[in-house]
Amino acid sequence: MFQDYKKYRISKLNYLLFVVMFNVFSLGLEAGTFKTEAVKSAFNAGLEASDIRGKYKLEDLLDGADVLFDNKEYRRAQDLYELSLSLDAKNLSIFKHLAIIYEKTDQNTKLAHLAESVSSYLLPEGNDDDFYQKMLSISIALNSKRNPELSWKTWSRLFETVKKKPGKLRTIVQNLESKVHVPFLARMYQILEKKKLYSDFQWGQLAEYFFLQADRKAARFYYNKEFIKQKFDRRYLYPYALIEYEDRNFQSCQVFIKLCKALIKDQMILRKVELLQRNLNDHLYDVGVDQIRKEVDFLFRFQEPELALARLEQLVLLSLSHPKTFLDIAELLFKYPKKYKTWGYAKDYLLKFSQFKSLSFNDLLKACEIFYEKDYLEEMVLLLKKISRDYPKESKSNRRLIHFKKIVLEQLKKDISLFSLHGSTADLKRYLLFVIAFDPYFSDAYVKLSDVYLLEIEKELKGRKSLSISLREEVSKFVEKMKDYPLRRSKNRSDLNYYSAKLMLKFPKKHRKHSMEIAYLKNAIKEDDTLLDAYLMLAKVYHDFEFYRQSIKQLIELRERLDETDFEIMSTINVLLSKNHLKMASQSYAHSNYFLVVNSMEKALSYAKKPTIDKESSIWLAYSYYYIEQFDKMDKLVKLSIKTYGTGTELLYLLALSHEGRYEYKKAIEAYQKALKVNVNDKSPFIEECEKAISSLQSILNSRE
């Protein structure tokens, strides 16, 4: 039934199209030559309304158009919709379908006319419709330049419908921003800003338009609004600098030139900025530098230092690329008494002068002499370092410069002592790093700084298990620098080697390099064999990296150098000797070398001055006594261990073995039975051994009876 209806509908549609097209042809009218009464200036439909009325039903035309639209035959559907509009010029559905067709088929002119018709003649019931708003937006964009007043009326109507819908208003404004004429957009922005209904204003887009139109006043106004925003397009900095230059606001122009150089990466814009900078420098140097210098001099004479300094800043802005200006300003400010408080500014200008790359050796030497005369030591150090780097030959041969370096070093040594006595650890560290940067071969500074780092490490280790990555890396770089510089030619090599190893010992084990630590400590001992702490540190390094024999050898040698009255260090040595022998006993036990276990363990106990060290080592030693048949020692050790660590299965088993070794079979059986009682609910490997031993020993006793 449905198939029959569909065939009927399609045949009816084909008939309708045939009749319509035949009438269009027979009337001899070309499409696009008439205007409907209802739409007036909006459409070219192909037939006059009077020719259509009475011949076709609106329902038939719309029915056919809808079928063609659904089948995406847009051109054929368009003809029927346009004919239908002649019969019902206020039908919103027809407008919507035609708008979709014009968009999909790129008929932009017809879409624009359609938008005008909707905005001019559509009845108010369409006001809340998305389509209505879209058509109004198209009409606004179309007329914003050629008929701005008509466009403004349309915008006012559209604005009234959406002003209480912020989301929709935002979408509409963002759509219009890229389509309307810029002066019209500025007018739109005014009402939106006044009513606080929008926040994402494209002020830079407006400013750029007026800048290209040579309207500097309007461009400046909108650029200022753009720069108030939290984030703005950095490329706007250059045109604003150009506006300031043309308006002779040279100080502000220089500010924006510097911002461009700092923030913009576009090479084309940067080339323009450099050209503007040259124009600014050349122009300003011709017209105002000497006058400004005279003004400054007079202002200082009349005791107006604040005004004078403000004027000097303008002088700098006028000649940023001229280093002599900075030197002149520094010399000028140093001439005035300290009561004007100009010397700090003079120092800063002199530092800025010294940072220019184009300066000669004599220029830098002159700056150095000024710092020397005014007793600015730290600034002089920085400058001497720069001279040594940039002019290595001259700095080694120039007597004046050599004299400066000598004076600086003497003063630095005095100041280190002052910082050590009166300054904080942080201040001392900062100063020592500063000294080393000036003279990387100054060994005393390295020794002092090593002590500072050791204090930092100890402080940090109190609050955490291991060193932080940052401090470890900082200390590693320091140790490397110590190796690369003072260790190569210093007379104080013993201390430098000693501190290098001592710092590395504080690192986590996985980051330590035992070969380097051993090398540093051996060198320290070689340079100064009275450095007893180095012997002890070397023994600890050997122990940490499992070189127990070498550690013991080092400790024995150290003991021979000490007096027995040195109780504290002797105690430390004995503890470490005990640990070494204990580790060697463990290794020997793992390889079943029981004589070596007994030898190492007895030495460990003698140095520890204890009958036992721990339960585990006691068990090793007991087994070793058993295997080398020293049953009396075994018996004594096991009984002491049971008393110290409590009755356990293995210790009772060892006690039974000691009795058995001494032929005390009844006592052995009792010990085995106690071991079984302790182990009632446990799956111990000793159960079976104990049961076998009891049976065997009982048989021996029975046979004796």
Describe this structure in words.
With 705 residues, the chain is mainly alpha-helical. The chain is built from 38 helices and no strands. The radius of gyration is 49 Å and the shape is flat.
* Mean pLDDT figure: 79
How many strands, what sense, and barrel or not for the largest sheet?
none
Number of strands: 0
Number of helices: 38
Q: What proportion strand?
A: under 5%
Which structural class best describes the helix and strand composition?
A: mainly alpha
Ends distance:
119 Å
Helicity level = over 70%
Concise synopsis of the structure shown:
This protein has helices at residues 2-27, 49-52, 58-70, 74-87, 92-104, 108-121, 130-143, 148-162, 166-177, 182-194, 203-212, 216-228, 237-246, 250-263, 267-287, 289-301, 305-318, 323-335, 343-354, 361-373, 377-390, 392-397, 399-422, 425-438, 443-463, 469-484, 486-489, 493-504, 514-527, 532-544, 548-561, 567-590, 594-608, 615-627, 631-645, 649-661, 665-678, 686-704. By secondary structure, the protein is mainly α.
Please write out the topology.
Blueprint: H1 2-27, H2 49-52, H3 58-70, H4 74-87, H5 92-104, H6 108-121, H7 130-143, H8 148-162, H9 166-177, H10 182-194, H11 203-212, H12 216-228, H13 237-246, H14 250-263, H15 267-287, H16 289-301, H17 305-318, H18 323-335, H19 343-354, H20 361-373, H21 377-390, H22 392-397, H23 399-422, H24 425-438, H25 443-463, H26 469-484, H27 486-489, H28 493-504, H29 514-527, H30 532-544, H31 548-561, H32 567-590, H33 594-608, H34 615-627, H35 631-645, H36 649-661, H37 665-678, H38 686-704
Helix pairs in contact: 1-3, 3-4, 4-5, 5-6, 6-7, 7-8, 11-12, 13-14, 14-15, 16-17, 18-19, 19-20, 20-21, 21-23, 21-24, 23-24, 24-25, 25-28, 26-28, 28-29, 29-30, 30-31, 30-32, 31-32, 32-33, 33-34, 34-35, 34-36, 35-36, 36-37, 37-38
